[in-house]
Amino acid sequence: MRVVLASGSPRRRELMEMLGVACEVQASGAEEVVSSSEPEKVVEELSRLKCLDVAEVTEGDSVVIGADTVVAFEGEILGKPKGSTHAREMMKRLQGKVHQVYTGVTIVVKAGNAKQVVTFCDCTDVEFYPMTEGEIEDYLALEREGETPVWSDKAGGYGIQTAFGTKFVKGIQGDYYNVMGLPASRVYHELKKLGVLN
């Protein structure tokens, strides 16, 4: 059955491939509107919105998977940094503390006239080592090729799979891949339950 990933995230696509699931990528253009401010409900709403948007235009029998990830600290969603000042504030708040990463996932299975929709959320606790002012400034100065700051497009301002994660993530409680943007093992088992995978 055709599998469509309703996300432009290269990391999510890599994780699907690690599961042995080849998928097409069709990012949603739906406006992100939510009715809740609770992290777990926000990511579930957004994953459902994106997934249903792409499922609507996907023809034939298919499986569409949508996901949304947020970083939260003390119940507040941090989002992606709006600039270096914002990124610095995030790092100062998170250093030496435990925060949460929530990923909401929605799976739509279309077969003939039937449609199944499953939505769930996974949460991982992430603990950072304390960081000095100098370490925070060194991190903020890092750039990728093309001179884009490494923190600019990441929820909470960091990627666990990067050099930052190697240096400053003290430990996690929960699914590591959830922090990358997709609770891969949970997705695999949900696809099995839905009869998509054997």
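[next item in queue]
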Amino acid sequence: MDIQVPLTKGLLADKYAKYAAAADIVDGKPIVSFPIKINGVPEEAKSLALTFLDWDAVPVSGFPWIHWIAANIAPTVTEIPEDNSQTLKVPMVQGRNSTAGGIIGNKDVKTAWHYNGPNPPDKVHDYHLSMFALDAELPLKDGFWLNELQDAMRGHILATAEFTIPSKP
């Protein structure tokens, strides 16, 4: 399985991150998700799930920052379009990002349970997009947490694809 995200000069395009247009930022958070191309999903897959994490945030916040998690994407999907997190042209169940946790306490479903774009404070961060082909749909509802996704996926992962996405400070 393979996934691809378009980069601009080797970086995530500004419109999906810190330098997005004002109309695409809510409470200081970029909300327009980037498109993802998906190839080579195993035929026996019943669903797909994704995680978009910033491991470079560990020295800044003490933990990897969760920017987007989603599950129960149809295995026949070959592209998740731009802004799918808000528009759901491709159906998916979305989980909570790190702004929903107790440290930030964001309770706005539009920004806490959807894509929360990169906003690196100190240097270029490498964001890790992972796509999982699963042998089942997962028993998750909108607003799930990353640990719930990981628990639900355990024993069901057929294939994994990763794509590193650098974003500028």
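[queue empty]
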